[in-house]
Specification:
The protein contains 11 helices and 12 strands. The protein is an alpha/beta fold. Helix 2 runs parallel beside helix 3. The structure holds S-adenosylmethionine.
Length: about 325
């Protein structure tokens, strides 16, 4: 029987975010690298094999996880990404498998990913301005990404989400264009607040934008506003012809209290939070030493017990997500 784990703050464990590699063909100026250290592991890091990733995902699903996200580095750098997708998508009990990519290699692989069982895809796109795009990604070409996005839409991913990290002084003014583009595609736009991880303090101070003004505007324009209770209570603004979701983690206790996620680093460590690197649970070494699935479950249970909200409310009476209504 499948369990449902909760941490000591009453938050269920429903999501696993797996970094399948730390390698990336881009070097975006704002990238948090999923909170992993700046190790250059292009050739010699201990990436997990397809079998290891699928086994870990299966154990997570047996413990109640229903949603898996593949990330990186750039997940499409892995030649075996379709095998990873096929293996995870066939796990009984999994409801949602998605992947986030910079989109630069999507053109050639979108259809295969879809055929392998990927439901949804997120594509990082901070701007539609070619010059700004090149500046943010250190010289990459916007056109190949736009071509990849079109192919992803045609391949049938539902939804395609465009991940737009908002950077003060760089791309705030591009939001209306991005909304129009998203509408034309039939996609969803995700406005993401800049996290202060793996970027310099100076960069963060200069470019962090708290998204309040954007949310105020969206609230006025929206026909319906929803909350994703089990995904950080993120707000979803349904506009007349498109949908905009806002990811607003900074100093946001509500975001953290509705976090239902564990992360798996590219070298096989369970990580409680993007912002925290102090309580990593290495599961890859024990796996390679031959532990059983029961022992692996125990490591998950331990890691889950150590999860705690990065921003905690002072009122402890709200520490039980399950007792709250949708
Ligand atoms: N290479 C893939 C990509 O570009 O989507 C996956 C890795 S990237 C680290 C995963 C997501 O994190 C992307 O949607 C990206 O926009 C977002 N992201 C990167 N750096 C960020 C930051 N400093 N703050 C908030 N989101 C960030």
């Amino acid at each position: 029987m499948r369990l449902l784990l909760h941490d000591s703050f009453g938050r269920p464990l429903l999501n696993l975010r797996i970094a399948v590699t730390q390698r990336c063909n881009y070097q975006c100026t704002y990238c948090h690298r999923e909170g992993e250290d700046a190790v250059n592991c292009v050739s010699n890091c201990a990436e997990m094999s397809v079998e290891e990733i699928v086994r870990i995902a299966k154990v997570a699903v047996d413990l109640g996880v229903t949603r898996v996200k593949l990330t990186g580095g750039e997940p499409l750098m892995r030649k075996d990404i379709c095998q990873i997708v096929a293996g995870i998508s066939s796990i009984f009990g999994l409801k949602d498998l998605s992947l986030t990519t910079n989109g630069s290699m999507l053109l050639g692989i979108a259809k295969d990913l879809y055929a392998a069982g990927l439901n949804r895809i997120n594509i990082s796109l901070a701007t539609l301005n070619a010059q700004t795009y090149s500046r943010l990604t250190l010289g990459n070409n916007l056109d190949e990404v736009l071509a990849g996005i079109e192919v992803a839409v045609k391949a049938g991913f539902s939804p395609v989400k465009l991940n737009m990290v908002i950077l003060k002084g760089i791309n705030e003014q591009d939001i209306p264009n991005m909304i129009a583009y998203t509408e034309k595609l039939g996609a969803i736009l995700q406005l993401i607040e800049l996290d202060p991880i793996n970027v310099s303090k100076a960069y963060y101070n200069q470019h962090h934008c708290d998204l309040k003004n954007q949310e105020d505007k969206l609230r006025q324009e929206a026909i319906i506003i929803k909350q994703r209770q089990f995904m950080h209570n993120r707000s979803i603004y349904e506009l007349s012809n498109t949908t905009v979701e806002v990811v607003h983690p900074i100093e946001n206790t509500d975001f953290c209290m509705h976090c239902t996620r564990l992360r798996l680093t590219s070298n096989g460590k369970l990580k409680q939070c993007l912002m925290q690197n102090d309580k990593l649970t290495d599961i890859l070494t024990p796996i390679r030493q031959g532990i059983s699935n029961k022992e692996l479950e125990q490591l998950f249970i331990q890691a889950n017990q150590q999860r705690e909200p990065y921003n905690k409310p002072s009122d402890k009476s709200i520490y039980n997500l399950n007792s709250r209504k949708n």
